[in-house]
UniProtKB/TrEMBL annotation:
EC number assigned by the record: 6.1.1.23
NCBIfam families registered for this protein in UniProt: aspS_nondisc, PRK05159.1
Catalytic activity: tRNA(Asx) + L-aspartate + ATP = L-aspartyl-tRNA(Asx) + AMP + diphosphate
Function text: Aspartyl-tRNA synthetase with relaxed tRNA specificity since it is able to aspartylate not only its cognate tRNA(Asp) but also tRNA(Asn). Reaction proceeds in two steps: L-aspartate is first activated by ATP to form Asp-AMP and then transferred to the acceptor end of tRNA(Asp/Asn).
Cofactor(s) for this UniProt protein: Mg(2+)
Record keywords: Aminoacyl-tRNA synthetase, ATP-binding, Cytoplasm, Ligase, Magnesium, Metal-binding, Nucleotide-binding, Protein biosynthesis
InterPro entries per UniProt: Aa-tRNA-synt_II, aa-tRNA-synth_II, aa-tRNA-synth_II/BPL/LPL, Asp-tRNA_synthase_2, Asp/Asn-tRNA-synth_IIb, NA-bd_OB-fold, NA-bd_OB_tRNA
Subcellular localization, as worded in the UniProt entry: Cytoplasm
Name this polypeptide is given: Aspartate--tRNA(Asp/Asn) ligase
Enzyme class: ligase
Species the sequence originates in: Sulfurisphaera ohwakuensis
Site, as annotated: Important for tRNA non-discrimination: 82
Family: Belongs to the class-II aminoacyl-tRNA synthetase family. Type 2 subfamily.
């Protein structure tokens, strides 16, 4: 048994009892012949006191910051100590000695730049702030899954080595697959659609890969995509589902992540339902009225999104009904105006977090849109074939976890959020 209690579980009521803690040496201090060890475990920090005449004193002299130790001792209630208790060490076992000096200060007193932080990443992740980010992300995933289970969705996995592009060809990572060319999945798009044609309501949380050339704070070469696909539904239905999901995610984090939000000194925005829906054509009009030279069909970039955010006075808004030409081949056009599509992006301030649509569910239409986009229907036969055998109308969306975390933590770069980010410059650690 390495420990009898986590640090935070020991309260002043334990006065006089023996407990065993295990964790990392966060800080060390010498004071009047005594040694103070601030010990850290996953629940927080606790104070260990080593008296000069304790048999643990000898080994305490050898300790370095971030060494891993086990401490057996007697709890003393003391109002002056952090959390009202301290542990008087009787025995210390050194489980793993850390080299000194550390390349990065885990206590957070000495600030490091982002390149140092990413290079010395495991030490950086041990900092309180990063542990809070990791915990908030886990809460977001829990709320995502719970909301979907409640709505009758099933979690699935789809292949990550695939035969063709789904979101445009330029960003594909090729892999050699038994001598043939294959690619890392940019998105589970086509397979999640096929699965919606089996069990109707599916979701997946999995990595996706894009060989992004642009080095922005919001692009990664590998990101976790939270995907949803729903049969017998259109884009309005999935936007409503997304509103519920986001509402529950923020609620869960505010309720269960109070400590973590306090550490980050951040409050995520309330998700007011319904979230504002702005038509693409209205967005273009607003931007033109502000002097932007933007025409129908153009993408709406970050500077333009910032303007919309200011004009709408909403931090969270949908831009709906994008031009059909600007969306992937699987996106359904509006029947009354085929120039526009049944599609949406969810924007947080100036950042696209989610993208979704009603899908084409007729084979002839898919073949036509593939050709229009210069793609060969034959290359997609593995997908199209199943549209001959009963594919229900369906809709869905994909949400980038790291971008969602920008909204949930206030951290302005996905590279700081993801534990081991992959981008053009980084393949290790
Ligand atoms: P899209 O290409 O818009 O849509 O991607 C969906 C969401 O994934 C996130 N994202 C990224 N996050 C970090 N780094 C990247 N390089 C990156 N690229 C995308 C964004 C984005 O909103 N198949 C469709 C979704 C659907 O319609 O179901 C798709 O992939 O948050």
């Amino acid at each position: 048994m390495y420990r009898s209690h986590f640090i935070a579980d020991v309260t002043p009521e334990y006065d006089g009892k023996e407990v065993i803690w295990a964790g990392w040496v966060h800080l060390l201090r010498d004071l009047g012949g005594k040694k103070f060890i601030i010990l850290r475990d996953k629940t927080g920090l606790g104070q260990v006191v080593v008296d000069k005449n304790s048999s643990a004193f000898g080994i305490s002299q050898e300790l370095t910051q971030e060494s891993v130790i086990q401490v057996r001792g007697i709890v003393k209630a003391d109002k002056r100590a952090p959390r009202g208790i301290e542990l008087h060490a009787e025995e210390i076992t050194l489980l793993s000695k850390a080299k000194a000096p550390l390349p990065l200060d885990v206590s957070g007193k000495v600030k490091a730049d982002i390149d140092t932080r990413l290079r010395e990443r495991v030490l950086d992740l041990r900092r309180q702030e990063m542990q809070a980010v990791i915990k908030i992300q886990s809460l977001a995933l829990k709320a995502f899954r719970e909301t979907l289970y409640k709505e009758g969705f099933i979690e699935i996995f789809t292949p990550k080595i695939i035969a063709s592009a789904t979101e445009g060809g330029a960003q594909l990572f090729p892999v050699i697959y038994f001598g043939k060319e294959a690619f890392l999945a940019q998105s589970p798009q086509l397979y999640k659609e096929l699965m919606a044609g089996v069990v109707e309501r599916v979701f997946e949380v999995a990595p996706a890969w894009r060989a992004e050339e642009s080095d922005t704070p919001f692009h990664l070469a590998e990101f976790i995509s939270m995907d949803v696909e729903m049969a017998f539904a259109d884009y309005n239905d999935v936007m409503q589902l997304l509103e519920k999901i986001l509402h529950n995610i923020v609620k869960t984090i505010k309720e269960e992540g109070k400590e973590e939000l306090k550490i980050l000194n951040y409050e995520p925005p309330e998700v007011k339902i319904p979230i504002k829906r702005l038509k693409y054509t209205e967005a273009i009009e607003i931007l033109r009225s502000k002097g932007y030279n933007i025409k129908f069909g153009d993408d709406i970039g970050t500077p333009e999104l910032r303007i919309l955010n200011e004009e709408l006075k909403e931090d969270l808004y949908f831009i709906i009904d994008w031009p059909s030409d600007a969306r992937p081949f699987y996106t359904k056009s509006k029947s009354e105006n085929p120039e526009l599509s049944e599609s949406f992006d969810l924007i947080y301030k100036f950042l696209e977090i989610v993208s979704g649509s009603t899908r084409n569910h007729k084979r002839e239409v898919l073949e036509e849109t593939l050709k229009k986009k210069g793609l060969k229907p034959e290359s997609f036969e593995f997908f199209l074939k199943w549209f001959d055998y009963g594919m229900p109308p369906h809709a869905g969306f994909g949400m980038g976890l790291a971008r969602l975390m920008v909204m949930l933590t206030g951290i302005q770069s996905v590279k700081e959020i993801v534990p081991f980010p992959r981008d053009k410059k980084r393949l290790t650690p």
